[in-house]
UniProtKB/TrEMBL annotation:
Domain of life: Eukaryota
Chain ranges of the N-acetyltransferase domain: 1-124
Protein name: GNAT domain
UniProt-listed InterPro entries: Acyl_CoA_acyltransferase, GNAT_dom, NAT9-like
Signal peptide: none
Amino acid sequence: MVGVAEHTFIVLDKQMLIGKFVHGEPHVEAMAGDVNIYMNDLDDSQMAEIEIMIAEPKSRGKGLGKEAVLMMIAFAVKNLNIQSFRAKIGESNTASLNLFKKLGFEVALYSEIFKEVTLELPVRSNRCMELLNLIDNPDDTRSL
């Protein structure tokens, strides 16, 4: 499809790492999931759909998803000029819904047919600005 771009970051769980971390090495044993953004809104090139998956059950509940989403948001804002994020989450996926709501995403739409909640976060929102500041100043954990 013309005009659609995507970016993926692989999420590593350092507790599953064998040996010493070497930047650029695949570290397959530590792969826990991924975070993706898709610029697939042909009417708004500054909107990105974001999704997170922590596939490895023993890596869930450690904050990896939150950290990965924050890193992807920062990457997209700073490098791709993204101004708004959208997440589509199944209504039964309460962990993901809670994660995105905690990060400041707000419900924009509910699809009865797909049993899916669409949440959005504009970059100019106070919460998003707090999150971006936190990424730039990691010692300030008050925002989380």
